Amino acid sequence: MTVVFASLYLATVYIGTPYSLFMGWSKCSTIFRERKISGWVSLASLTLTTLSVALAIGSLFGTPWRYYDPTLMKIYSYGAKLSLLALVLGLTVIWKRTTLRWFAPVAALGTLIFWIGAAASE
């Protein structure tokens, strides 16, 4: 069972999330033509997810982290909060027809799963 869970975790975090982010940003140029509030909310969700990914990548550089480092725990907390806010924003407009309707919440869910897994591994 743990092999299945680990495989799903790795596929979601390292394949699904980057794919959703890449496809979302490649299709976001149509948001400016749609001129709908739901498109802008989806774009905000995708932006928050991208900030969460940037925080994850940025936390890899710098000083080596100790076990249960308080700064690292704050980074995990901020990343999870960004992802959760992006997920809530993405889910609020999922019933509206926009180009980012599915990409924004899927990417946000993937980053939220990443942050939960990273915090659980500490």
Q: Could you characterize what this model shows?
A:
The protein starts with a helix and ends with a helix. The chain has one domain (2-120). It is mainly alpha-helical and 122 residues long. The protein is 78% helix and 0% strand. The model has no long low-confidence stretch (mean pLDDT 88).
Keywords:
78% helix; mainly alpha; single chain
Concise structural overview:
The chain has one domain (2-120).
Number of helices: 5
Strand content: under 5%
Global outline: globular
Q: What percentage of residues falls in helices of 4 or more residues?
A: over 70%
Number of beta strands: 0
Rounded Rg:
15 Å
Oligomer: single chain
Q: In the residues, how many domains can be counted?
A: 1
Cα separation of the termini = 21 Å
What secondary-structure arrangement, pairings included, does this model have?
Layout lengths: L1 H26 L3 H4 L2 H24 L9 H23 L10 H18 L2
